[in-house]
From TrEMBL, chains A, B:
It comes from Sporolactobacillus shoreae. This is Alanine--glyoxylate aminotransferase family protein. The modification N6-(pyridoxal phosphate)lysine is found at K195. The keyword NAD does not apply. Residues 7-331 form the Aminotransferase class V domain. InterPro entries: Aminotrans_V_dom, Aminotrans_V_PyrdxlP_BS, PyrdxlP-dep_Trfase, PyrdxlP-dep_Trfase_major, PyrdxlP-dep_Trfase_small, SP_NH2Trfase/AEP_transaminase. Keywords: Aminotransferase, Pyridoxal phosphate, Transferase. The keyword Transferase applies.
Length: 386, 386
């Protein structure tokens, strides 16, 4: 078939809309030009609702991990205490980064595939009552397991039980879930471009509260490229960036803002939950076990456990027969699950596509044929939203 | 006139070829896919001649400053001694980054607009004979002044007079100048995508010698996103990157490699020197003073001092009347010079374009009209190469 007809269902990178590609291919502009200042101010303001913040959202030219590193090195320093909620490989990465910089990390380990409950966090903080915890780090959406943590409830616990900053890795959900930094008590919220924000990888975004901004300003940790003070200062004083930004990706971000506004931010969120619910209904119909409970289920990525057929075999067959790319498991879950991303430029038809391919694949592997069955279940969910 | 007919002559970002834009707009692929491994290996190998190295060239998702920071935090640690040649604002930035991390920086200050001679470096190192210098940092092409430092001669001095690593910021010239890391005794060589490499900003490239690689491996400095060990390991073991890379920019880099190979790497270099010589001949004809001597002149960026008309006024007029963007001076040179970038996707016709605009602009400001005169001088240079 057409070799350019490929279907990307990884939990990032995600497909790029044509109009975003077109925006990125406009003539390059200088990053010290008035045109660029207009562009970056536009994007910084129009992303506010997506991050649930009143402050402009700043862009770093780098990928998600550097956003996590920025969240660490702008809030905690060597020798200070921090709590990191670890419920999967990205929580682990946050903890590893902080440990790398000599922070005293207290890991709140949660079983992979489950969310962190407010009660668990409260008990953990109680156990650290005699420690001065500078910051609590949480992964909003654990990409490795498809779990959405109850970030508002966790933020409430942090605010009630401690003076710690609440720093949130929103990498694989911001742009697909509701968030309100003030209500959710979030001080720093970071994400990257290649997930729900419909852009290629290469940009990280940072939002902050008044308190988060104060912490950034006062943090003595050594950093240069990831020193958020420099980004705040360049933006406030010159509507600019401290270092050469990924101009074309920021031009793409402007187009993404238009797309979100045209669809309506509330509708964007609803779409992501619809995609999740359609996919889960279809997967259940196929008899494949879901890794997470409905309560914990992420609206942007779904993890499916191996049934009779090993998950990696399904992953390979989808790639070979249908040019569909999904993701496997990471670390402890390697070989045990496959993960389907459904965020950003993803529609209900795309969910039907991946379910159809799964129906055909299971039949090919000798399972009892259920052609059309998963699609039917997904449509039954969809019809309630049409 | 056509609003999309804009002319970018800044020393980065530079114009993007249409075919590179098209390559970047191909369907997004997963960064953990075999397709991506093929892509990154292809780029890593095909960039070798451009960096004058036998090792694969690694890509970081970030801009030029982070490449400088990577060069620092992977070679020197807090409390160690390093020499930084400072002949402009980018040498100053290198020194500032190293100082930020607690390195004992010995600044070899050179008058802005002049190159660092091997004799100056040798005398400076002699003065530090009792100090154990871990690394000497040099800016290959000082973007702020349009000076190309004699990097091979400087490398020879470093190798002869010390055990120090020779770490080179090649940001605004790699892709337009000849370099041979072995002959030039360079241990680490970094650049970014948006200069002579014809890509949008967002990628940094790092090349290293055997000795550079050993230094990276042994460096105890704290870093995470910019830890080059992670990049080397991910490439060697899996033909991958440790963190999500800017996939679309790397797809663009592959197309750039094709363009360089089609033109021929030797011809690419010759073109850059031709562009420089044409521009300087034209500027001289207009009676505008050049900042640098012919010996020091960069093949990628040319700085012109204010004559009767202030440089910023010329810069503004080019923008307003011709949609031509050039750059101004930085720090001490602010308001005193303008800078014209001529690297990457730039042809002799582009040089005639900017000279024509200067002829018209000077006439508009009341100077004795020299319409066609600078173009003629530039053509006289060109004709010798046709």
């Amino acid at each position: 078939m057409f070799l350019d007809q490929t279907y990307l269902f990884t939990p990032g990178p995600t497909p790029i809309p044509n109009r975003v590609n077109a925006a990125m291919a406009q003539p390059m502009i200088g990053h010290r030009s008035p045109d660029f200042s207009v562009l970056i101010e536009d994007v910084a303001n129009r992303l506010k609702p997506v991050f649930g913040t009143k402050h402009p959202v700043l862009a770093l030219t780098s990928s998600g991990t550097s956003a996590l590193e920025a969240a660490v090195v702008n809030t905690v320093s060597e020798g200070e205490d921090a709590v990191v909620i670890v419920a999967g490989s990205f929580g682990d990465r946050l903890a590893t980064i902080a440990e790398n910089y000599g922070v005293n990390v207290h890991r709140l380990n949660i079983e992979w595939g489950k969310s962190c409950t407010p009660e668990q966090l409260e008990a953990f903080l109680d156990g650290l009552a005699s420690t001065s915890v500078k910051a609590v780090f949480a992964t909003f959406n654990e990409t490795s397991t498809g779990v959405l943590n109850p970030i508002g409830a966790l933020g409430e616990v942090v605010a009630r039980k401690s003076d710690a900053l609440f720093v949130v890795d929103g990498v694989s959900c911001i742009g697909g879930v509701p968030v309100d930094m003030e209500k959710d008590h979030i001080d720093i919220l970071v994400t990257s471009s290649q997930k729900a924000l419909m852009l290629p990888p290469g940009l990280a975004f940072v939002a902050f509260s008044d308190r988060g901004l104060k912490a950034i300003r006062e943090c003595p940790a050594k950093r240069f490229y990831l020193d958020l003070n420099r980004y705040v200062k360049a933006y406030e004083e010159q509507k600019s960036t401290p270092f050469t930004p990924a101009v074309s990706l920021i031009a793409g971000a402007k187009e993404v803002c238009s797309m979100i506004e045209e669809e309506g931010w509330e509708n964007v969120i609803k779409r992501h939950y619809l995609l999740r619910d359609m996919l889960r209904a279809g997967i259940r119909e196929l008899g494949l076990p879901l890794l997470t409970s409905d309560e914990d289920a992420s609206p942007t990525v779904t993890a499916v456990k191996s049934g009779n057929i090993p998950a990696p075999d399904i992953q390979k067959a989808l790639k070979k027969d249908f040019a569909i790319t999904i993701a496997g498991g990471q670390k402890d879950l390697k070989g045990k699950i496959f993960r389907i991303g459904h965020m950003g430029y993803c529609t209900p038809f795309d969910i039907l596509k991946v379910l159809t391919a799964l129906e055909l694949t299971l039949a090919k592997f000798g399972e009892e044929p259920k052609l059309g069955a998963a699609v039917k279940k997904a449509e039954e969910v969809w019809v309630q939203h049409v």
